[in-house]
What we know:
The chain is α/β, with parallel strands linked by helices. The protein has a single domain (4-224), classed as Class I glutamine amidotransferase (GATase) domain (Rossmann fold, 3-Layer(aba) Sandwich). 34% of the residues lie in helices and 16% in strands. It is built from 8 helices and 11 strands. It has helices at residues 20-32, 64-71, 96-102, 105-108, 116-127, 139-145, 167-174, 207-224, and strands spanning 4-8, 36-41, 50-51, 56-57, 77-78, 89-92, 132-135, 150-151, 178-179, 188-190, 195-198. The strands form 3 sheets. Strands 5-2-1-6-7-11-10 form a 7-stranded mixed sheet. A two-stranded antiparallel sheet has the order 3-4. Strands 8-9 form a two-stranded parallel sheet. The two termini are 12 Å apart.
Amino acid sequence: MGKRVALVLAGCGVFDGSEIHEASAALVHLSRGGAEVKIFAPNIEQRDVVNHLKGSPTEEKRNVLVESARLARGNIQDLAELKASEFDAVIFPGGFGVAKNLCSWAVDGKNCTVNEHVNSTLQAFHSAKKPIGLCCISPVLAAKVFPGCEVTVGQDKDIDGRFPDAETASAIVELGCKHICKNVNESHVDKANKIVTTCAFMCKAPLHEIFDGIGTMVQEVLKLA
């Protein structure tokens, strides 16, 4: 029987929701790994709505659960209904929606607050010693909720212009966590906390390398589950 994995989304679209390629990559690798997946998102209003063609905010109002349903092909549940006891692992794809909707990192950085249902979900899986997978900016959720944990968002220096958000690593360290430098096609496993992270689009890399990195994260999560 395949592992039961919850996937938590933050909307639909890199600038105000979940990064679509990351969510899709996670789902493909989970499918290949024989996992049984259910998708969740918080039933809240998005912090903002961005015109992805122009890259600028609009006056629209959108709901995170409703927008996430686009990625889930309509098969999605309110995050408030997620019970860690019914799953073997949880995975959070990245995208600005994580830093805007699942927490306030986009505005407050290391002083951010985490959505109550996101926090309780992370705490429930951690307390049950079940693995948590995070990619791109999502590792900041673990850094905020679990001081002392180990995560990666890629590199802590902007090497050859490939890691423009390298300062995120410093903020993670300031939260009392350990940042582990990894390449885009790698992931890091914090064995003590069962937290698996990979940088994904925190690195400017070809899509297939990001896809492969997410694959290593999913494989490690399934091994731990």
